[in-house]
Amino acid sequence: MSVGADISLKEYLKKYFGFDTFKGNQEVVIRNVLDGNDSFVLMPTGGGKSLCYQLPSLIMDGTAIVISPLIALMKNQVDAMRGFSTEEGIAHFLNSSLTKTQMQKVKQDVLDGKTKLLYVAPESLTKEENILFLKQAKISFYAVDEAHCISEWGHDFRPEYRRIRPIVNKIGEAPIIALTATATPKVQSDIQKNLDMMDANVFKSSFNRENLYYEVRPKVNAAKEIIKFIKNNSGKSGIIYCLSRKKVEELAEVLQVNGIKALPYHAGMDAATRSGNQDKFLMEDVDVIVATIAFGMGIDKPDVRFVIHYDIPKSLEGYYQETGRAGRDGGEGKCISFYSYKDIQKLEKFMQGKPLAEQEIGKQLLLETVAYAESAVCRRKMLLHYFGEEYHQENCENCDNCNHPKEQFEGKDDVVLALEAIIAVKEKFKAEHVANVLSGVKNTSIKSYKHHELDVFGEGSKEDPKYWNAVLRQALIAGFIDKDIENYGLLSVNEKGREFIKNPEPFMLTKDHDYESADDEMEGKSGEGKTGAVDNELFNILKDLRKKVAKELNLPPFVIFQDPSIEDMAIQYPITLEEMQRIAGVGAGKAQKYGAKFVDLIKKYVDEKEIIRPMDMVVKSIVNKSGLKVYIIQSIDRQMSLDDIADAKGLEMHQLIDEIESIVQSGTKINIDYYINQTIDEDKQEDIYEYFREEAETESIEAALEELGEEEYSEEEIRLMRIKFFSELGN
To answer: Lowest CB count within 10 Å: 40, 240, 550, 598, which one?
Structure first.
C-alpha cells in the first residue's frame, strides 16, 4: 500500500511514537517498504533502524515477521511496542522461551489479525510446525534484523541465517527489508545475494559518528588504567568488553573491590542473573557492565558515556558495532581500547584446527584490526574507509592519532632487511625468532639452528628485538609477508614482498610501538606500576635502607628488592604491607620477609613531607587466579622436567623461565635443583652461584655472561641458577 501526502506519514509517526520528525533516511526507507519494494538498510547503531520496520507494520495490513537473533532484544522491542498501543497482542515474539499456552496465544492473535509485529528467532523459523502456521497468516513483509549474521565475512556469522530465503519461499513471498548497523561492501553483497534481493533499493547512512572519541592504548596495567578512568568519570554509564568469560568475572570483581558499581554479563551465566544484571544497568543501579560481546545488541540505552575494550575484538566490524553503543543520544562517547600484540596471537591460536576457509577469513579480519590499532593515521578515516566510505578531513580532532600524532620515519631499508632475514632462515620461523636473529640475540634456539652463523645475524643490532617485531608487523600489514596460523605463525615472504626487496619504495614506519610491553597486571609481574614520576629523594633513601638490610643479612642488595621495585615504591608510596604486595616484583612472600622496615620508612617520609599519595596505590587487586602459575608450581613440586612443563603448556623454554622468574620475584620459594642437577654440571653451578653471591652488582644476565664468558656458559644456565639463588636467599 502507498501513503498519500507527506503529512499523513508524519501523523502516523506522531500518533504511534510521539516523534515530530524522522531521523536520517528513516522516511525514504519507510516509503519504500510501504510501496512493496525490497530494501537494504545500512544504518549505524543509534540511527533508528527499528522504526524502519515498526512504523510500516502498524500502517500495513497483515503481520510483519521480524527475524532477529537475540531473545533479550525481542523482549525489549515487544515491550516497547506494547507501550505504544492499548492492544496487548499488537506485538509478540515466537521463540524457545515460551510455554505451550503462551505459544497458543501468540498463534491465535496472529491468525485473528491483532498482531502487527511478530519477532521470530531464525531457529524457530526453521521448525516445520511454525512454517505451517505462518503459511496460514497474512504477512505484510519480512524484516531481517542484524542481517550481517548471514555473511561469513561479518563479525557475527550464524549459519541458520543462511536458510532464511528458502524458508521465506516456503511460507509465501512478501517484500523483504534487511537491516544492519555494520557491513563492509563485501558483506553487503553477500547479504543481498543470499536473500535473493540484488534489485533491492539500498539506503546507506554515513558511518561517521562525530561525537565518538577513539583511542588505542598499550595494554600495560590495563586494570589500573581502567579504574583510574572510571573514577575520573564517576557516575557515568559504561561498558567494558573482554573476550573471555573468565576475564569478565575477574575484572568485574577487581572493579567492585575498588568501590566501582560494576556487574558481569556473559553467556555462561544463568538467564535470570544475566537479565537481572542487564536491568540493573538500564535502571542505573550499576554504572558499569563488564561483558563479553553477548551484551549490548539492541540495548537501547542512549547515555552510555564510554565503551572500553579490555581485549581488542576479532574484527573491525565487531569493534565498530561495540563502540557504537556509546553516545547514542549524540552526547559524549569515549571509546578506549587496550591493545597488545599478544592478544592477537591468542586469537590466532583459537583459529588453529578450524577449516581453512574460516582461517583465511579470520586471518584477514585480524590483520585489519592490527592495522587499525597500530596505525598512525586518523582512526575515523580508517574505520570509515573499512566500510567503504571516504572521509576527506585531514584531522578529525576527536581521536588520539589526530590529537597526538605519532612520530614516523623512513624505514624502507629496515623493511628490506627484515624480509631478507625471513628468507635467510628458510621461511620456517616465527616473528620472534627472526627479530632475535636481526638483533643478534644468541639464545639456545638460535645456536641450535646455527643461525648465529648467518650473514644477516646481528645486522640490525642497533635496535632491540621489540623494534624488529614491530617492523615485521608493519610489513605484514603492508602485505609483504604471509603468516601461517596453522603452523605456529611461521612467516614467509610473498610475491609482493619479493618485489619490494628488488625495488624498494619509500616506507614510513611508525615510532611508539610500546604495544608489546603488555603484561597481565592481575598477575603482578615485575616491571609494572610505573604510572607516575619517581620521587628521587625517596628512591635514594630506600636504596640506602636496602644496602643496610643487605649488609645485616650478608646478601647482595638486589636479592632484597630489585631496582624496578624500589623505583615503584618511590612512585606509589606504599605504607602498609598489603600495599607493598602490589609493588612491581613484590609478592606476599617478599613483602612479609623484607617489607616492614621499608613501609615504616615510607610512612614516616609521607607524613613529614605531607605527600598526597597517588590514587593508583588504592587500586586493590583480587587473589591471583592465574592457572598457569599454579600449574607450574605444582609441576615443579612433583619434580616434572621443565621441558615437559613447557610442552604441556605450549611454551618455549625461555617463556617458561620468564614465568618461573616472575613467581620467584614475587616471593614464592621454588626448588628446581632436580632439573639443574640433570642439566648443568656441578662446577658450572658453583661458579654461577658464587658469582651472584660475591661479585654481582646487579641481577643482570648480560653482565653475568660477560663476566663468566659466553663461550662456556649459556643464557639459560645462568637464568636457571639465578632462579635457584633468588629462591634460596631472597625468599
So the answer is: 550
Bridging pattern class, strands 201-204 and 508-510: unpaired
Cell of 261: 558499581
Indicate if 69 and 195 belong to the same structural domain: yes
CA distance 674 to 689: 16
What is the β-pairing status of strands 508-510 and 408-410? antiparallel
Q: Taking the CA atoms of 153, 156, 159 and 161 in sequence, report the sign of the dihedral they define.
A: negative
Confidence of residue 526 (pLDDT cuts 50, 70, 90): very low
Burial class (CB in 10 A: 0-12, 13-18, 19+), 431: buried
> What secondary structure letter does DSSP report for 159?
G
Structural domain that includes position 648: 627-730
Domain assignment present for residue 150? The answer is yes
Q: How many CB atoms lie within 10 A of CB 567?
A: 22
Cell numbers that stand for 499 in this block = 618485489
pTM above 0.90, yes or no: no
Give the pLDDT confidence score for residue 571 in this predicted structure.
Answer: 83
- Longest Cα pair distance anywhere in the chain, in angstroms? 98
Tell me the CATH number at 198. Answer: 3.40.50.300
pLDDT in tens, 384-415: 878 878 888 888 999 999 998 888 889 999 99
Long-range contacts of 491-499 (CB under 8 A, 24+ apart): 491/422, 491/427, 491/429, 491/430, 491/431, 491/434, 492/422, 492/427, 493/419, 493/422, 493/423, 493/427, 497/419, 498/419
pLDDT score of 2 = 44
**243 and 171, same structural domain?**
no
Q: What is the 3-state secondary structure (H, E, C) of 484-526?
A: ECCCCCEEEECHHHHHHHHCCCCCEEECCCHHHCCCCHHHCCC
Residues 447 and 533 in one domain: no
Contacts within 8 Å (CB) and 24+ apart, 430-437: 430/488, 430/489, 430/490, 430/491, 431/469, 431/472, 431/473, 431/483, 431/489, 431/491, 432/465, 432/469, 434/468, 434/472, 434/491, 435/465, 435/466, 435/468, 435/469, 435/472, 436/465
Last residue of a domain, one of 339, 363, 384: 339
| Residue 440 backbone zone (phi > 0: left; psi -120 to 50: alpha; other: beta) | left
In a domain, 104, yes or no: yes
Burial class (CB in 10 A: 0-12, 13-18, 19+), 24: middle
What is residue 485's predicted lDDT score, i.e. its pLDDT?
65
Alpha-carbon gap, residue 163 to 186, rounded angstroms = 19
